[in-house]
Amino acid sequence: MRVFSGIQPTGETHIGNYLGAIKQWVKLQEKHECIFCIVDLHSLTVPYPVGELQKRIKEKTIAYIAAGVDPKKSIIFVQSQVKEHTELTWLLSTVTPLGDLQRMTQYKEKAEKYKKNINAGLLNYPILMAADILLYQTDIVPVGKDQAQHVELTREIARRFNKKFGETFKIPKALLPKAGAKIMSLVKPNKKMSKTDNPQSYIGLFDAPEAIKRKIMAAQTDSEKEIKYDISQKPGISNLLTIYSLFSDISVKKIEKQFKDKGYQFFKEKLAQLLIEKLEPFRRKKKELELRSGYLEKILTEGRKRAQIIAQETMKKVKQKMGL
Ligand code: TYM
Description:
This protein is mainly alpha-helical. The chain has 12 helices and 5 strands.
C-alpha cells in the first residue's frame, strides 16, 4: 500500500496537525511505503511573507522528523521541487467541474476570510491536492477531518478521468483517526484548532513548558464543574478530554472517573503536565535538527529524487492517455 499526505508550510505545527495527521503517519510508515510532502505551492494561495517561505519549509521538515517521521523509511520532499504536481494540476482541471470546486467548504471559508484576495488558486487548490495524491498512485491519505472533503473530490476526479480516458489512476481513500480528527481551538472550542489563528488558540508542537501551561490554564471551558465529555453542551472540556486521552492512551471514560469531583483547574494542571512531558522529546529533537542544515537538505534532495521517479512515470501514462 502506498500512503501520501502533506502539510502546508504556513504557521507553526500544532497538536491538531499531530493528532489528526502526523501521529497516523508515524504508525503507517512501519508497514507501508510512505510519501510525506511539504506543500509549499498550496501555501501561496493566501497572503504570505515571501522572504520567510524557505525558513518555513525548513521548519516543517524539522517538525515531520522531530514528531517521528523517519527519513529512512519515508520519502520527505517539497512539492514545488517536483514539477509534475503543477503539470498534472492543469490536466486534471480540464475534467473538474467548476461547481465541485465552488462548493468546497474550505474554499468558502477562505474566500470569506481573505475577501480581498480571492484568487483562482484558492478555488483550484483541491485540484492541486488531487494531483499530489494521484501522481503517486496512492492508496491511503491520512488526514484530519477538514481535508476529507478534498480527498472525496480527488476520488471523484480520478473516477471521472479513468472513465473518460481509460484506467489510469488508483482510487485513493482518506484515513481519519478514530479520535482526534478534529481538535478544536482552545479559545473558541466550536472552531477547529488552526495554525493561522492566534497562538493562544493552539498548542504548538514545540511550545515551551510555560506557554503550554499558560494556554491550557486559560483554555475556554463552561461555567460548570463537572469533567464530562459532552460535545454539544461542553465543547471546551470535551476537547481537553480528547487531548488528554490521545496523549495518555487512557480512555475518556476512565479519565472522567479519575477526575470526578476534582474540578477544572486541577484537571487542566494535570493536562498541562502531561503535554509538557509528552512534547519534551519533540522539543529536544527539534533543537538537535536545527543545527543540522546539511542533513535536512540531504533528506529533501533524496526525497525529491525518489518522488520524481514515481511522478514521472504517472505523468507519462497520463499524457499518453490524453493524446498528448
Ligand atoms: P493543513 O496544512 O491545513 O493541515 C495538515 C494536516 O493536519 C490536519 N489538521 C487537523 N487535524 C485535527 N485537528 C485539527 N484541528 C487539524 N488542523 C489540521 C489536516 O486535516 C491535515 O491532514 N490541503 C492540506 C494539505 C495537503 C494534502 C495534500 C494533504 C496538500 N496536498 C495531499 C493530504 C494529501 C492542508 O491544507 O492541510
